[in-house]
Design brief:
Blueprint (H helix, E strand, L loop, with lengths): L8 E4 L5 H12 L3 E6 L14 H10 L3 E6 L5 H14 L6 E4 L5 H7 L10 H28 L2 E6 L11 H21 L4 E7 L6 H11 L9 H5 L6 H13 L10 E3 H8 L15 H8 L17 H8 L6
Parallel strand pairs: 1-2, 1-4, 2-3, 4-5, 5-6, 6-7
Helix pairs in contact: 1-2, 1-9, 3-5, 5-6, 9-10
């Protein structure tokens, strides 16, 4: 990879594993100086899924990147304030990119999966939307204060197709929809200072937790129709693809033209001619090349023959916002 981001300073929140780790690695291989945050510096927490800041740092350094890991609990506003104060001091006020990725609701989602929201405690909402939605707002406040001083910057808020269609429950869907609205409304207020704000939608990403989820589905005799895609890894992306796409966005000179809009990782990868690991390029989840084989699994081996035609947004929204049968 060419080091097109030399001299750029980026912050990726929640980068001990999953999409955040992939984003940090993608930025590192492109030459950016990458600050990463997470709760775990060198100790794995109780969910037994590997992932620490130091592990991510090592992976970034393997691809020739520069990484500064900082242990932060994003539910504590004071810790977040001190994080940005440190970046301001160490980088002379420069922050080119904030990636709002941190999310602590995976365990809560797993525990609540398949059950109606009212059968769980009220804490489910906070578990999903405190370090996730609220924390993105807080980090954006501090990032914008730095970026506005230099009249430039990019804020990417990691969201999900769950903001449009039911996936992991009511609290999750509302939170992701709110992330999209947050990115859009911040864009209105940031545009006079030449700061771009976009919402980023990865596809189905092979994070550690998603791989574990798929493995659990494979042990079940019967699964719901909407779980089939999760079970057989069809058209999955790696976390690195999102990182490479965001790195490419940061390279662009005219990102302000994209501000306030949802950006789909697979579509940006196609636009900027970016490939995933092993040279693969997954298609957008609104492409016929995904939709048709996903509905008719026997066609998956022939997916390359299906046109990569993307369903227009207005049709997609009308269809996906209908209440599904669970």
């Amino acid at each position: 990879m060419t080091k097109n981001l030399l001299g750029k300073v980026a912050l990726v929140t929640g980068a001990t594993r999953g999409i955040g780790k992939g984003i940090a690695i993608g930025l590192g291989e492109a030459g950016a100086t990458v600050y990463i945050t997470g709760r775990s510096l060198n100790t794995i927490f109780s969910d037994n899924v590997s992932g620490t800041l130091l592990e991510t740092k090592q992976e970034i350094e393997k691809v020739g990147g520069v990484c500064l890991p900082i242990q932060v609990d994003h539910s504590d506003d004071e810790q977040v304030r001190l994080l940005f104060e440190r970046i301001e001091s160490e980088q002379n006020g420069q922050l080119d990119l904030l990636v709002n990725n941190v999310f602590s609701g995976v365990g809560a989602i797993a525990n609540a999966y398949g059950q109606p929201f009212w059968k769980h405690t009220l804490s489910l909402w906070d578990a999903i939307n405190n370090v996730g939605l609220r924390s993105h707002y807080v980090a954006s406040v501090f990032a914008a204060r730095l970026m506005s001083q230099r009249q430039q910057g990019l804020i990417c808020t990691i969201s999900s197709w769950g903001g449009m269609s039911y996936i992991f429950g009511a609290a999750y869907g509302v939170g992701k929809s709110a992330c999209d609205r947050l990115a859009a409304d911040m864009a209105v207020e940031l545009k006079p200072d030449n700061i771009t704000s976009v919402s980023i939608w990865p596809g189905i990403v092979s994070t550690e937790h998603m791989l574990e989820f798929a493995e659990d589905l494979n042990t079940q005799d019967e699964i719901q129709p909407h779980d089939v895609t999760f079970r057989d890894n069809f058209n999955w992306e790696t976390p690195l693809l999102t990182g490479r796409v965001i790195a490419s966005l940061l390279e662009q000179q005219n990102t302000i033209n994209l501000t306030g809009k949802v950006q789909i990782v697979a579509e940006l990868a196609q636009k900027y001619r970016i490939v995933d690991e092993h040279g693969k390029r997954p298609v957008s989840l609104r492409s016929l090349r995904f939709i048709v084989p996903n509905a008719i699994p026997i066609l998956r081996k022939y997916a390359w023959l299906i046109p990569n035609f993307k369903i227009p947004w207005f049709i997609l929204q009308w269809g996906m916002l209908q209440s599904p049968k669970i």
